[in-house]
Amino acid sequence: MEYKEEYKRKLTDIEEVLHLIKPGMTVVAGMTPMEPQLFLSQVHKARADDVKIFTCLNMKPYPFFYEETPSSFENNSWFFGHYNREAIKKGILKTHYVPNNLHQAGTDFIQTRKVNMFVGVASPMDKNGFFTLSASVVYEKDILEAADIVVLEVNPNAPKTHGDTSVHIREVDYIVEVDYPLPEIQPSKAGKEERAIARHISELVEDGSTLQLGIGSIPDTVARFLESKRDLGIHTEMLTESMVDLFEKEVITNSKKTLWKGKFVCTFAFGTRKLYDFVNDNPAVMFFRGSYVNDPYVIAQNEKMVSINTALMVDLTGNVCSEGIGKTHYSGTGGQLDTHRGAIMSRGGKGIIALKSTAKGGEISKIVPFLPEGSPVTIPRQDVDYVVTEHGIAHLRGKSVKERALEMINIAHPDFREWLKKEASKLGLL
Ligand code: COA
Questions:
Q1: Domain co-membership, 86 together with 143
Q2: How far, in Å, from the CA of 295 to the mean position of ligand 1?
Q3: What is the pLDDT of residues 56-83, one digit of tens each?
Q4: Same domain? 121 vs 217
């Protein structure tokens, strides 16, 4: 009863929240499925200059970074999505990438900056005064604990989740009730290359392995090719719908995991309503902070840990670029290096980078002699393990640059192999 009174006292509207924003403030918003959509769509109306707003993988073209507005707000983003890229293409330079390994995004932030305000999304309060941060605790909980002002958009569509997601009404300063649907991502359509890649990867995944599947169409397709496997487990940054499908088919049981046996472990979930319903009040799905789930030393405690991520290009010696095309920033490191390193440190683990051999309808080889000028290295060659394309598997760990170049040429598209051989010779690799 007491908590209901406190809830009522803290209940407010978005206008009052906008009045809290003062010049020079640093504001952090929850990410992706848990983006505070009402706040982000209105924040450009706040009367304050030089406000920095930190976000991650924005789901909508929010005016504060996507339009020319009178406000001098700046968006700093831990991971670029479509709208960040489009804003930059339009010449609106209000969105800036923050280089990070996902497991350190929140903890680095609170060590180096003061957080004036956190705005997140929560599932409705229970009788004991607890909300949950629902489908993402990548950095949200660390930031919430450090923030001077905590605002929650309370949404009945947000699933109530288990793990380290609870927040008590006492920790919250302002509540705004909302009722928008959560952002959804549909399972991607697989082409013949993706299917060939998935078939190669299924050869590498042994029964009883624990999996991390990254973002993009390839990891999604891989899941569909694992149906003949037994007793797979999940320890992943992002929980996806394909994992729920494999659970329903009794492929994922989590029963052979050597850490958190019997449980799915993730730091956020992103999919369709089916996924959000699956995680709702599901004690078998544990959401923990990104600083825990993606810590390579934690990941490595899962024996036979297999991480499957994808990339934009890989050079002949194994440098992996997943976040930029030359000087143009594309997405972010996210948890790619974290999960890859965790997997290669695990007993019997494998770090897999899977990519189509070409882009732009076969015009460009994604296997390149060297990364073009300005390309960020997401996984350095000294960490690389398996690289898989539709043409096969290259196992680069422990191999010389010559051996690597030969293996990489073998999995390149046949149209580019002669060119790659010549370039490799010019570089002194062969
Ligand atoms: N040169 C030029 N363009 C290229 C290219 C290359 N080598 N490789 C891809 N592209 C283009 C594609 O043609 C496509 O363009 P379009 O949007 O105009 O069609 C675009 O870049 C995206 O490529 P695609 O292969 O469709 O990307 P994806 O959606 O499968 O995502 C990554 C791939 C690598 C961008 C994405 O997985 C990522 O950001 N990874 C880093 C983070 C991560 O892995 N985290 C893991 C834990 S969740």
A1: yes
A2: 24
A3: 999 999 999 999 877 789 999 999 999 9
A4: no
Q: Whose CA is nearest to atom 4 of ligand 1?
A: 359
Instruction: State residue 316's pLDDT score.
Output: 98
Predicted confidence at residue 68, as pLDDT, reads 86
Note down the domain range covering 29: 2-177
Ligand 1 contacts CB of residue 313 (under 6 A): yes
CA of 58 to the centre of ligand 1 (A): 17
Write out pLDDT tens, residues 16-69.
Answer: 999 999 999 999 999 999 999 999 999 999 989 899 999 999 999 999 999 987
**Per-residue pLDDT at 1 exceeds 70:** no
346, 218: one domain: yes
Q: Is the CB of 413 under 6 A from ligand 1?
A: no
Closest CA to 100 of 237, 255, 250: 237
Whichever domain contains 134, its CATH number is 3.40.1080.10
* Whether the CB of 340 sits within 6 Å of ligand 1: no
φ and ψ of 305, to 5 deg: -80, 125
Q: Is 217 in the pocket of ligand 1 (CB under 6 A)?
A: yes
**Are 134 and 235 contained in the same domain?**
no
Domain membership flag for residue 347: yes
Let me know if 237 is a catalytic residue: yes
**Residues 217-233, mean pLDDT to the nearest whole number:** 92
* Residue 89 identity: K
Q: Is residue 184 part of a domain?
A: no
Compute CA 103 distance to the chain's CA centroid, rounded to the nearest angstrom.
10
* Count of structural domains within the chain: 2
> What average pLDDT score do residues 199-209 get?
97
